Amino acid sequence: MKPKDDEKQRAIAQATFELVAQTGLSGLTLAEIARAAGVATSTLYVYYPSKDELISQLYQDAKTVTAARLMEGVEPGMPYRARVRRTWCNLLRHRLDQYAEVIFQEQYYNSPWFTEGNR
Q1: What pLDDT, on the 0 to 100 scale, is given for residue 48?
Q2: Is residue 1 predicted with pLDDT exceeding 60?
Q3: How far apart are CA 65 and CA 42, in angstroms?
Q4: pLDDT in tens, 46-102
Q5: Residues 36 and 19: beta-carbon distance below 8 Å
Q6: Using CA of residue 6, residue 12, residue 13, residue 18, what is the dihedral sign?
């Protein structure tokens, strides 16, 4: 089995985020994602066996990245106000820098894909 290409995986994720930001989750197709990512639809299935798996995995990945980004520069010994300020600034920066990813997370959160089991 051929190893997965990280660059293709990033392209698939970015294409998905951008398409969701433009059109929403409901009408999204794997063919559109593959076209936007510059890969064959069959290649997309190598990385994600279904649309549900793609959407769920990207949400989990985005959630992990967001949590890490919020805590950048926050140290255990920092005064409370400084921690809150740093976290808030990190949140704003993340929302501006990763706009499409943030829209994807919000769309996912308000969709049938979001359940208690994948919080």
Answers
A1: 92
A2: no
A3: 27
A4: 999 999 999 999 999 999 999 999 999 999 999 999 999 999 999 999 999 999 999
A5: yes
A6: positive
Taking alpha carbons only, the member of 69, 109, 68 closest to residue 93 is: 69
The architecture that CATH gives domain 6-118 is: Orthogonal Bundle (1.10)
Q: Is 113 helix (H, G, I), strand (E, B) or coil?
A: coil
pLDDT in the model for residue 59: 93
Q: What are phi and psi of 33, to 5 degrees?
A: -60, -45
Please measure the distance between the N-terminal and C-terminal CA atoms of the chain and give it in whole angstroms: 32
Cβ(104)–Cβ(17) under 8 Å?
yes
**What's the Cα-to-Cα distance from 46 to each of 12, 40, 55, 59, 72, rounded to whole Å?**
11, 10, 15, 18, 33
